[in-house]
Every structure is written in structure tokens, then in C-alpha cells.
Amino acid sequence: MAWPGGRNVRDLGGRALRDGGVTRSGLVFRSAAPEHLTDAGWAAARATGIRTVVDLRNAPTETGRTADHPVIRADSLDGLVFVAAPTEDPDDAEFLRVCGPWLDHPRSWADNARLAPARVAGAVRAVAAARPAVLVHCAGGRDRTGMICAMLLVLAGATADAVVDDYADGWRGAGAYEGHGWVYDLQRQTWDRRHLPAAEPAELDRQVAERVPAVREWIRTFDTEAFLRSAGLSGPELDTLRALLRPLSGS
């Protein structure tokens, strides 16, 4: 997507469905932290249809503008609704013990949902309640965003390959930029902010290849709809999510 300043921006549309056709475009987008967008970038996002921004990051540690971000006009955000929907509790000892070593890996997805069901389901609920189009993002737009977008694609009936491809594109898109990220040190039990250099294409290919089996295992063993029901999503909310990315009847 051509949003000036935007990082790792893509549309969930165009992914193959199990019963034929592809997911609908223009309704759900994913990205890295949108603080990188310039005024022109926000204008482009709004022109694309963005009305709601669902932020999966942990506040206040990961959120807010810094000197690395462009200065924007206040009116660049007019009409947008921002929803805080963190998917994890960075202070939960059991979450850190189980998921801490795997925060940049889909091996953590099922445990994240098990240990923080209200948070993960709350993020999906935020998409169901959002006025489209909606932008879903975390910091890099690959791990937490990848998990939530995988759930949305599964609910839409996307093929396993489509879910994998979306995850892989998000990983490569994040790795194309240098930046900073928070890494949990299990031995010292502390969060460390580390510089993350941009990765070479060959290294990104290696990282993706190492993670794809875990995505396929999650698709095979994790029942997204049953999880969301058990976490409190209603039938109408699930109906909304199933229909969100489906092609319009007759299209």
C-alpha cells in the first residue's frame, strides 16, 4: 500500500478461500506502528477508507510518538477512532515464562490465547465492532498482528496456504525496516529494548521457513471459532467476523 511513511502495510483482501474466490479487499488492513505515517500517509489511509485503528501494543511502554516519528498535524487524525486492544499482559509471570522466549514466533499463539483469552478475544471483538475499513497493527506488524489476522482469515474460510502467505508477507515486511523492539530476557526476567536491523532477503527467507511449520500446526490444531465463543464472543459478533472478508453475494 502506498501510504507515505507507512511500514509493512497490506490489505487482507485477495487471499484464497477454501470454497473458491478470494477475500474481499478494502475492509481490513494490517501494518507496523502507524506513528511512522506522515500527514500524506494518514491522508492516503483515510482515502483508502480507514476509519478505525486497532492497536495491539502494550501501553504505555510501546505506544506514543518519539523523535523517530514524523511530526503531523492534529487534523490528520480527524474522524479516526483509535482502539487499544493489547493481546498480552507483559507483567503476567506465567505468560512471560511460557511465551516470553517465543514472542517473535507463532509457537506462542495458542499459549497466548490460552493464558490471555480475554485480551486476544478482545482484539478480535474490536475488529468486529469497528467501523470499516479497519487497520490492525502492533509494533512491527508481524507477530501479534499476524496472530489476529490469521484468526480473521480462518473465520473467513481462507485456505491454509493463504493464512501462511499472509503471515510470511507480514514477517518479510517487518524485516525490511530497522527499528527497535522489546525482547523479554527469561533469565534476568526483564524487558529489554533492542535495536533491530533490517534483514537481508536470504535471512528473512530462513526465518520464514523456520516459522511456517508452526503456523500450519496452529491452523491444524487451534479452533479459532471455539476459542472465541469460549472467550465470550456472541453469535452475532462471530457472524460479523465470518462475513467481514467474504465476497459479496454474486460477486
From TrEMBL:
PROSITE patterns named in the record: TYR_PHOSPHATASE_1, TYR_PHOSPHATASE_2
Entries under Gene3D superfamilies matching the protein: Protein tyrosine phosphatase superfamily (3.90.190.10)
Top-level taxon of origin: Bacteria
SUPFAM superfamilies in UniProt: (Phosphotyrosine protein) phosphatases II
InterPro entries, sorted: Prot-tyrosine_phosphatase-like, Tyr/Ser_Pase_IphP-type, Tyr_Pase_AS, Tyr_Pase_dom
UniProt-recorded Gene Ontology molecular function terms: phosphoprotein phosphatase activity
Pfam families: Y_phosphatase3 (PF13350)
Domain named Tyrosine specific protein phosphatases: residues: 118-165
Membership in a protein family: Belongs to the protein-tyrosine phosphatase family.
Identification of the protein by name: Protein-tyrosine-phosphatase
Organism: Dactylosporangium siamense
